[in-house]
Amino acid sequence: MGGRSSLQREIFSMSATMKEGFALCGAAASVFREIPRQFGRRTRQISHIVATTGFQGVICRARFKASDWIRPREPVWPVVPDDIIAADLSQPFCARVPEIDREAPITVNWVTGPAGRGSGGHTTLYRIVKQLQNSGYLNRVYLYDPYAGDPKYYQGLAREHYGLTCEIGDIRDGMKDADALVATSWPTAYAVFNARCAGKRFYFVQDYEPYFYPVGTNSVLAENTYRMGFHGITAGRWLAEKLAREFGMQSDYFPFGCDTALYRRDPASKRSGVAFYARVGTPRRAVELGLLALELFAKRQPQIELHLFGERFDNLPFRVTNHGLVSPQRLNEIYNRCFAGLSLSLTNVSLVPQEMLASGCLPVVNDAVQNRIVLDNSYVRYAPLTPHLLAAALESVVSMPDFASVSKKASESVAPTSWNMAGAAVDRAFRVALRQAL
Question: Which residues form the WsaF N-terminal domain (predicted)?
């Protein structure tokens, strides 16, 4: 019995090994059969891409696949995770609000992410900071950087490029007591919520940031910051109304400003083009739709020059002058060469339409409630957000028989607009809210 049992075990073992071998051979045969099939598939795909977009299209797709392959699978957080864990919204810290001394300046701690050159949000924020400083405020800027950048570099950039002269520190070193403590983006709101220094909590809101992300963790984390009990100061009325309606958040707003000394209409300018503000890194500006509209427009009006600014683009199916990121002075020159400018926004409106108006360039903007509320200007041309209708709106501007007269009136319509008005509105919001907090 024992011998037969041993022999049976050997037979069973050999049988299992043979089955595994057959399975491996079958799998290998399957792989080898798949190779020519996949090779044929990829060859046909590459041929199709070359036929439709050229070799540049193949290179673009290869770069996209390579970038996806090397992308880390763990999330890169735009906020320090420990700050999220520490922020228990059910138990907010009751900060002391100092009594305002009429003889002393109002002290404000601004918490902001570090900025590179050309950041529109930081440009507006730092303009307001400088306006308040001119009104006697004592400002401190604290950099919040979850990516562990070099604070000295960004401090230098804030001074050299944005012209800040106030104290600039690293939030990791702690914050001094102040009259007001201001979050300026959703990641910084967590740091402000968790801070233990004195000062009434404010939230400087320039856009509805949950819209910056697909529905998911980041959009929820951003939305939760509107439930932190801060007093909002928003860029334009649309945000103030939205935050009050959806979150019960008390807010004041400031009007969009425009540097009309820099952006101005040149009566001697020869206009021959259309401009488009395009940056792929800001999806809320609907760049792809704008480029499709320009492609249609270029076919209908081939004599009109096209100008792109904000970012350089390759392999476009129409002739265009790529300006990339330009200085404000250069931007004013571009506006003065154009009849119309395309400026799209799926969230809060950008500063671009006001600048275009000041330069006598008529902005074509997607028709949306936030754009109509904030701009509130009869010389803006609104169009539904489809390539054909946007292209038609551009055509209607370039074919206007009385363009020079309309251009002049458009420029005059924003002449009273200034950042002094915006700064004064923020000053009032601080003073009223601080008095009410006592």
Answer: 176-231
